[in-house]
Design brief:
Keywords: Metal-binding, Molybdenum, Oxidoreductase, Signal. By secondary structure, the chain is an alpha+beta fold. The protein has one domain: Oxidoreductase, molybdopterin-binding domain (Sulfite Oxidase, Chain A, domain 2, Alpha-Beta Complex), CATH 3.90.420.10. It is built from 10 helices and 13 strands. The strands form 2 sheets. Strands 1, 4, 5, 8, 9, 10, 12 and 13 form an 8-stranded mixed β-sheet that branches. A hairpin with a 2-residue loop joins strand 8 and strand 9. The termini are far apart. The structure holds ligand MTE. The site of ligand MTE has 16 residues, from loops.
Length: about 300
């Protein structure tokens, strides 16, 4: 990729804007992104990117707060130093990875539509790598049928985990069927808008599954387990009639309390129709060929 000195200068300016705290905590990720060691997405579908301010301020991260403003405020000094991700379960042998190890995977920019179950949507230029590369490295056994993800549990870092009555049961967990996890659209993201992820967006490492509702895209991952049976996930346990295991974006299956037919893109006034599998039908419909999508919602 050809980089002009001006582009490089602009990147440095962006880097400086991140502030000292963020610089220290994610200097490693910064240096990799700063060096532009990721391939850019040519955006063939010409998706209009959501304004960066909106995508980094209108967030859902219950561990900090259910209030979107407060979540951003509390996430400001989120410290990701010495972050480790453990891989265990049905594997040849358990593995521990540092962010340094993680950043050795080939990083790419991926411009994806993102649809929250709450009916807002956005288009984000993520930076990450295909989860399948990590799975291949981990060498799961033939018994591994599902991949389960867990967010950090740390009452000092996450105010809602420390509350007398936490909003949901922590740690937050999510899971994918192995073929979903191996799908080339499924990525682990370390950045967005050409910069490292901010605390509120799931630093230092989060999942992004663009054809599923946003709650599947679990943030600040510390544990990845390979398991034989379908795991119960946080939202499924919270309200099984409202949040299914699959959570595929589907305009024809309503949430029990609201329709999923339309969505409002952040920054836009009018709503627009929601697309089947969030616009990734061609790529992923075959994964669910023989399934009743109303039952397996
Ligand atoms: N991961 C954790 N650990 N905790 C959360 O509260 N919220 C989910 C998902 N991942 C959540 C999470 C929901 S409901 C959505 S819509 C997306 O994160 C929002 O991602 P964003 O805030 O980066 O837009």
């Amino acid at each position: 990729m050809f980089i002009t000195p001006e582009e490089l200068y602009k990147k440095r300016r962006q880097f400086l804007k991140l502030g000292v705290g963020a610089m220290l905590s994610s200097s490693l990720i910064n240096s990799k992104l700063l060096a532009l060691e990721f391939s850019s997405d040519k955006n063939p579908q010409k998706l209009t990117l959501t304004d960066e301010e909106l995508a980094t301020n209108y967030v859902n991260f219950y561990e900090f707060s259910t209030n979107k403003k407060k979540a951003v405020e509390y996430a400001k000094n989120f410290d990701v130093k010495n972050w480790e991700i453990s891989l265990s379960g049905e594997l040849e042998k358990p593995i521990k990875l540092t962010m340094e190890d993680i950043l050795k995977f080939p990083l790419e920019e991926r411009i994806y539509r993102f649809r929250c179950v709450e009916t807002w949507s956005m288009v984000v230029p993520w930076i990450g790598f295909e989860l399948r590369h990590l799975i291949e490295k981990a060498k799961p056994t033939s018994k591994a049928k599902y991949v389960k993800f867990t967010t950090l549990f740390d009452k000092e870092k996450f105010p809602d985990q420390n509350a007398l009555f936490p909003t949901i049961k922590y740690p937050y967990t999510e899971a994918l069927r192995m073929d979903e996890a191996m799908h080339p659209l499924t990525i682990l993201a370390v950045g967005m808008y050409k910069k490292p992820l901010l605390g509120q967006n799931g630093a230092p490492l989060r999942l992004v599954v663009p054809w599923k509702y946003g709650f599947k895209s679990i943030k600040s991952i510390v544990k990845i387990e390979f398991v034989e049976n379908e795991p119960k996930t946080t939202w499924q346990e919270y309200a099984p009639n409202e949040y299914g295991f699959y959570a595929n974006v589907n305009p024809n299956v309503s949430h029990p309390r609201w329709s999923q037919a339309n969505e409002r893109a952040l920054g836009e006034f009018f709503t627009k129709p929601t697309l089947m599998f969030n616009g990734y039908e061609k790529e992923v419909a075959s994964l669910y060929a023989n399934m009743d999508l109303k039952k397996n919602f």
